Fold ABC-type polar amino acid transport system, ATPase component.
Amino acid sequence: MTNLLEVQHLEKTFGEHQVLKDINLQVEPGEVLSIIGSSGSGKSTLLRCINLLEQPTNGVIQFHGENILTPKFDVATYRAKVGMVFQSFNLFNNLNVLQNCTVGQTTVLHRDAITAKKIALEQLEKVGMAPYVNAKPAQLSGGQMQRVGIARAVSMSPEILLFDEPTSALDPEMVDDVLDSMRALAHTGLTMILVTHEMAFARDISDHVVFMDQGVIAEEGTAEQIFSHPQEERTQAFLKRYL
Ligand code: ADP
Ligand code: MG
């Protein structure tokens, strides 16, 4: 099978500080890949390189076999196909819930307003946020905002959806609703790359797991391999903290 996304020898340096070192990974269509690792290990930077919020220093990122880092690559089209759900939600505070989920569709994808509204409502329904279409983000709980963030991202019909610690900013009682929404999405066959500290959840939904340590992939494998039979001492020490 052709990989949807392939990262080869990726490096990212900020000033003197090399944050990503020789990162290699592949994501097949429909796969859920989880990235775990300590704070500062480079997980967010890797996601941000994948969606070109950061420009990699070296290496290759292929999407459908095409290198996205060449000057002639159509970055705008690519960005529309690669969605992102942020730890801090990043909703538009001046727009209501429905508008948050339609604005990208109409401006970036040029969908007509009726189609955009229909798609947004379908996605808001799936995350249990349809009753809140007229609410502004400030009126919502963190868990509700994040479910809107997910609905907004999915409304763009992404080919791949990136999540950067989507539940880390939430009160504990709100985490499960968000994880349930993500689990349902994974079951639709959407390709997902997930940075998370929710180990039980990652173990449950991931096809593949990458453990990062100090800018390198220290170990990778199936969820079973990484969580039940980690080979590297660094992985074992990291996972012990979550038992
Ligand atoms: P993680 O998401 O695993 O916590 P990050 O990717 O956020 O790790 O950060 C990895 C390292 O890169 C950290 O040491 C961080 O300080 C550094 N870093 C991240 N972004 C920048 C930036 N824009 N400028 C300088 N250093 C950065
Ligand atoms: Mg991070």
Summary: The mean pLDDT is 96. DSSP finds nine helices and ten strands in the chain. The longest strand covers residues 17-27.
